[in-house]
Amino acid sequence: MTPRAVSAADEGLLNCHSCGLLSKNVPNAHDRCPRCGAHLHLRKPDSLARTWALLIAAFLLYIPANILPVMHTASIIYEEDDTIMSGVVYLWTSGSWPLAILVFCASVTVPLAKLIALSVLAWTAQHKSTWRQQERTRLYRLVEFVGRWSMLDIFVVTLMVGLVHFQSLATISAGPGAVAFAAVVVLTMFAAMSFDPRLIWDPEQKQDD
Amino acid sequence: MTDQTHTPAPQDEDIPSAKALPKRRLPSLIWLIPIVAALAGGWIAVHAIMQRGPTITIRFDTAEGIEAGKTKIKYKDVDIGNVTGVVLTEDRQHIKVTAQLAHATDDLLGDKTQFWVVRPRVAGGTVSGLSTLLSGAFIGIDPARKATDKRDFVGLEQAPIVTTRQAGREFVLKAQDMGSIDVGTPLFFRRVQVGEVSAYTLDKDGKGITVKAFVHAPYDQYVTSNTRFWHASGVDVSLDANGLRIETQSLASIAIGGIAFQAPPDQPVAEPAAADTQFTLAADRNSAMKEADRERAPFVLYFRESLRGLSVGAPVDFRGITIGEVKAINFEFSKEKREILMPVTIDLYPDRLRGRMRQDQPIHTPAENVRILNAMVAHGLRAQLRTGNLITGQLYIALDFMPGASKADIDWKQFPPSLPSVAGSLTQLQDTALSIAKKLDALPIESIGKNADQAMRNANKVLDNADQLVSRLKNEVTPEAQTTLKAAQDAINQAKQTLSPDAPVQQNMNDTLQEVSKAAQAFRDLSDYLSRHPDALLRGQKEDAK
């Protein structure tokens, strides 16, 4: 399979994130870089716990984000609260299928996919699984990459609120769902950041030993 | 991070040791995030559940304008719920609307709660629900006074005119026909709109209409036990003995009809009527007010003249005050009198004959009435047909005191008793004309003509004589006069010739005059000589002493 790899952690060495200095690990202590004073750690501290915590929070907020209205449209003719899904349905029924698909992917599928992907990563890392480490690493990179695009929905709402503002004729304002949704996106981004992908490869070392 | 190359591990002394800091073993604060998220989510969920009110179903005939998720239920223009679903009923005859009401709206739901769809509506002169043209229909609710746990309702197809929360009272009106009444038709009290028609139904027997009219507070106090209601719809044009009458209520009621009510003006104020009191809806104001006269005294009048122009309903009037009306006109042949009589049955309203000042007096007993009427007839009270309108030829019956009327009395034996009548004014006029004609007839027109003829002839003769005289003057006198004039002319001419300057007479006259002047000259000389030598008279002329 993969060639025999030596990791810094096996040798008890720490690599500084800030200045790249290699230093020896002192067990049972918070280490500092002797050169620049940055925090040193073999692996991201509490990586799994933090990832799980943020993931659970994101999962919890994902529910109101989809149930509560994201956008409140008020005009002379009518007053309407739109959730993400109703917006998609509206776009679909009004015939702009590409837009509907785009919004659906960006606002529904991607956040959910990220949440599930991160959960899978965290779960497998916790169980020291050696299953498909390559794909899992690629998955992690994908999650990291896609993270910033999940804010598309919030971006659309923000633009609408800014553009459509004819005081008495029509106003659009962000609903409570938008806040929840933004929180979901931010939390998943943090969760992805706090997950240490090296954990995917650690079990292999253990097996080899 | 991990290099794949097989470089030997770096030497320990080459690698600096990391600074050691004491380890903190604190529970990670990161778990606060999901806890906060859970709390927030939980609070939102609890709040949403708390805000959920009762779920109801309403049955309508049609779902026109109702959209699941869009249509709102509004009470006093406040959203109290949302339509969550619209489905057909099992029997496919109606639609069933499921609606989720807001928190704490249970007390609005009861047996009497009514729902209706508010759509643009034009009725009773009012336009309502125009806002729904843009915003789409919504469901209105008229809440019950008493809450029950009823959750399935049957919606109204039309908005109720009167909702339970409106103060006022509803009255029942019995009408012959609808006229131009509709739900929402305004009710007028002294031409102020004080209510509207809330419902109407055709009576089961098909003989009339029952109208429910709602009068808003505080105007409902003006509906008293003696109030009369009448159709005030449109223009009431009537042509009767009083001439052409046009009655209208207001411009609005002309367009959309209306009902007016009022107590008879000459009656004391009665106590307000209870709700759901039944009234009769009269055709017009006059008939409404007529019903006020509960007391009627029928009489019969016999006329000998033509009744053309007299109609049932014509007024019986006493010096301009209507005190009754004609009820029937019949035909009767009197065997004992051998003549055709025209009996006219009239109804008199004794109320109207009673003095205003004596309102509080006890109503006369029949015996007293008989006495009073007898006295009146003895004073000359008679009935008479009069022309009310010369153009239309309408007649009315006048009761009045006729001085010089032949003696008559009331026949109390028959029913109704008959009042004595005299010939109508038109008949009197005809009589007068007839008598004039008779007098004209009696004139000796022929002899007058003859005499006139004679006189004319005489006059002719006189004229002839004058004519002859003139011709004689012309033939005999004129020539004589002409000769005379000629002679005069000649004489004048001769005189002219005589007096002309070159005439011999003139010459002679001149000469004569010269002689005379010479003589005068001589005489003057003589007198001069004498004045100087007065002695000459005695001595004579002296010779010159030379």
UniProtKB/TrEMBL annotation, chain A:
<dbReference type="InterPro" id="IPR051800">
    <property type="entry name" value="PqiA-PqiB_transport"/>
</dbReference>
<dbReference type="Pfam" id="PF04403">
    <property type="entry name" value="PqiA"/>
</dbReference>
<keyword id="KW-1003">Cell membrane</keyword>
<feature type="transmembrane region" description="Helical">
    <location>
        <begin position="145"/>
        <end position="166"/>
    </location>
</feature>
<dbReference type="InterPro" id="IPR007498">
    <property type="entry name" value="PqiA-like"/>
</dbReference>
<keyword id="KW-0472">Membrane</keyword>
<keyword id="KW-1133">Transmembrane helix</keyword>
<keyword id="KW-0812">Transmembrane</keyword>
<keyword id="KW-0997">Cell inner membrane</keyword>
<feature type="transmembrane region" description="Helical">
    <location>
        <begin position="172"/>
        <end position="192"/>
    </location>
</feature>
<feature type="transmembrane region" description="Helical">
    <location>
        <begin position="97"/>
        <end position="124"/>
    </location>
</feature>
<feature type="transmembrane region" description="Helical">
    <location>
        <begin position="52"/>
        <end position="77"/>
    </location>
</feature>
<protein>
    <submittedName>
        <fullName>Paraquat-inducible protein</fullName>
    </submittedName>
</protein>
Automatic annotation (TrEMBL), chain B:
<keyword id="KW-0997">Cell inner membrane</keyword>
<protein>
    <submittedName>
        <fullName>Paraquat-inducible protein</fullName>
    </submittedName>
</protein>
<keyword id="KW-1003">Cell membrane</keyword>
<keyword id="KW-0812">Transmembrane</keyword>
<keyword id="KW-1133">Transmembrane helix</keyword>
<feature type="domain" description="Mce/MlaD">
    <location>
        <begin position="168"/>
        <end position="228"/>
    </location>
</feature>
<feature type="transmembrane region" description="Helical">
    <location>
        <begin position="29"/>
        <end position="50"/>
    </location>
</feature>
<feature type="domain" description="Mce/MlaD">
    <location>
        <begin position="52"/>
        <end position="143"/>
    </location>
</feature>
<dbReference type="InterPro" id="IPR051800">
    <property type="entry name" value="PqiA-PqiB_transport"/>
</dbReference>
<dbReference type="InterPro" id="IPR003399">
    <property type="entry name" value="Mce/MlaD"/>
</dbReference>
<dbReference type="Pfam" id="PF02470">
    <property type="entry name" value="MlaD"/>
</dbReference>
<feature type="domain" description="Mce/MlaD">
    <location>
        <begin position="299"/>
        <end position="400"/>
    </location>
</feature>
<keyword id="KW-0472">Membrane</keyword>
